[in-house]
Design goal:
Elements: H1 5-17, E1 26-28, E2 31-33, E3 40-41, E4 49-53, E5 63-69, H2 78-86, E6 89-90, E7 103-109, E8 112-125, E9 135-148, E10 153-161, H3 162-177
Amino acid sequence: MMHRPHSLRFGILALLVVVPAALVGAEAGGVQFDDPSGWMSAPKPMRAANYTIPAAAGDQQDGELAIFYFGPGQGGGVEANVRRWLGQFVKADGSPMTSGDAERQDQQVGGMAVTLLDVSGTYLFKPFPMAPRATPMPGYRMLAAIVQGPDAPVFFKLTAPAKTAAEAEAEFRKIIASLRR
């Protein structure tokens, strides 16, 4: 019997084609979500997932979507995290951000409580949480979500230059809309 390599290749391709789209995605802390389209996975320590968002025309830096899950009973409450995230930004005059400086929305997605936060200003970037100094990055925006997962919150935090964040907003909201257990 003659072996036909092209038949084997066709069989492998056929297997790849029949994988249901519903199986494509990611998971953190029992919360599933669709992978972002057009963003590159860029794993980092201490993060459940991390994606690089290509810079928009005119922006000098890429953006980033970091997804955190710290484990059962960990990560803190919604209000503490909203305050912490607001503290990572200052207004153009250097004064602190307050809750009135951000847009906040509380909603249900996939049967889970989700708090969305949208803040713009000067981002006080730290390469790691305990870094001694922050690098001020003016003209930045953060789109963030705190998702009440099955046993602890899952945090989605997009930070990027303003234009890049604006271009990434629809994809970010699509990811949040895809949340499921």
